[in-house]
Amino acid sequence: MIQSTPLLGKLYLIPTTMGDCDPMDVLPQTIKRAIDCIDYYVVENDKTGRRSIKAVSPEKKQSELKLFVLNKHTEVHEHLEFIKPLLEGQNMGLLSEAGCPGVADPGAVIVKLAHEKGIQVIPLVGPSSILLAMMASGMNGQSFTFNGYLPIDKDDKKTALKNLEKLSHDKNQSQLFIETPYRNNKMLEDILQAIQPSTHLCIATDITLSSEFIKTLRASEWKKLKVDLHNRPTIFIIHKM
Fold first, then answer.
1. pLDDT (tens digit, 9 = 90+) per residue, 72-106?
2. What are the start and end residues of each CATH 3.40.1010.10 domain in the chain?
3. What is the pTM of this model?
């Protein structure tokens, strides 16, 4: 007897809110429709994953959810175990802790594996702090680079900042980066010490939240202001025109 190959499930990339706000203020109805129909999820944290799902679809039974936790402690051999439901024909959702999965997010490894296994990947619309910050910065949206985290060492960080500043000038390219939120105030100090007074700096923090703050000024102008970024998710963008 010839056994038929089971249909593969689809992997839905499901954006989440970027903080404490009404999810329907920033997420389209397609997110709720997807969550209503999906019981299998890959998340960074079980508790916050369940909270995100409940916020969007409060009527969904938590007992029916099957969550796979993907974080820095996850072993590579576990990835294939995570996508078993997809291989067995079940649809799955991939959730980030905040914003869009797969972008500055460990979920990219699951997306890569899905492509290797011939699984359809469906990205859903939602907030991306990187894109929203770039949109609001007034800097070059035609050419920009997201650089992730800069080095922690002070001298290495200073070198990295100067290199990004030079690159922004040479290529007319906006340079985006982030820091661990509790080190944001120190990062701002280091930026202002490293870059030239005429270089533009955009600070975009608490994007989509009621405390949202987005402002672009020259470094010399930022030095006259006092901004508290402690424990507030922030995107930094520099561009030497």
1. 889 999 999 999 999 999 999 999 999 999 998 99
2. 10-123
3. 0.91
Q: How many angstroms separate the Cα of 174 from the Cα of each of 68, 144, 169? A: 36, 4, 9
pLDDT at 2 exceeding the cut of 90: no
Average pLDDT over residues 181-193: 97
pLDDT of res. 5: 54
Query: Does pLDDT of 226 surpass 60?
Result: yes
Q: Tell me, what's the pLDDT at 72?
A: 85
Half-sphere exposure of residue 53: CA atoms within 13 angstroms, side-chain side: 29
User: Token pair for residue 236?
Assistant: 């930094």
Q: Are 140 and 240 in contact (CB under 8 A)?
A: no
Pick the CATH number of 10-123 from 1.25.40.10, 3.40.50.720, 3.40.50.920, 3.40.1010.10: 3.40.1010.10
Maximal C-alpha separation, the chain: 78
Q: Does domain 129-239 have CATH number 3.40.50.1100?
A: no
Distance in angstroms (rounded) separating the CA atoms of residues 30 and 33: 5
Distance from C-alpha of 216 to C-alpha of 37, rounded to nearest angstrom: 42
DSSP reduced 3-state for 21: coil
Q: Can you tell me the distance from the alpha carbon of 207 to that of 226, in angstroms, rounded to the nearest whole number?
A: 19
Q: Classify residue 81 by burial, with Cβ atoms within 10 Å: 0-12, 13-18, 19+.
A: exposed
**Average model confidence (pLDDT) across the chain:** 95
